[in-house]
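Notebook entry, structure prediction.
Reason for the run: the old model in the group folder had no record of what sequence produced it. Starting over properly, with the input documented here first.
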Amino acid sequence: MVHYPAWDQDEARSIVSGLSHLEGATLPILHALQEEFGYVDPQIVPVIAEALNLSRAEVHGAITFYHDFKTSPAPRRVIKLCRAEACQALGCEAVVDELAREHGIDVTALAHSGDIAVETVYCLGNCALGPSALVDGELIGRLDADRLAALCSRHGADA
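New structure, fully documented this time:
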């Protein structure tokens, strides 16, 4: 997992001012901030709006429209659970139901609890070995609810 530096408002302002001259600078600025810090802190929205002569709503709208932009630091462990058709045929929805019922872990589009985020994705390309998940970038197949719960509880330990 990539470790990012803590949010630095002065560095963020420097990034904004360094890219504000570009035509259509909103997305390049947001990408640069996310690349530098791992997320786009909402406190930079007024700075971007002023630099680009946009409303705060327009900047906020760009951040929230694109799902890859995060507005808080990433958790230590990210689990991307495939819920596409092939994994559904191999029982991923039963895994999701059991995970909630037996382990109290609610898998939603972006469930985030402290050091763990469980995200729904659609197709990891591991269809024959589903249900599948991508855990901190490592592809894992043939998941069941107990194994997925163990992955959620390990907080960055090897699975």
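Summary: The beta strands are 77-82, 110-113, 116-121, 133-135, 138-140.
The old model has been moved to the deprecated folder.
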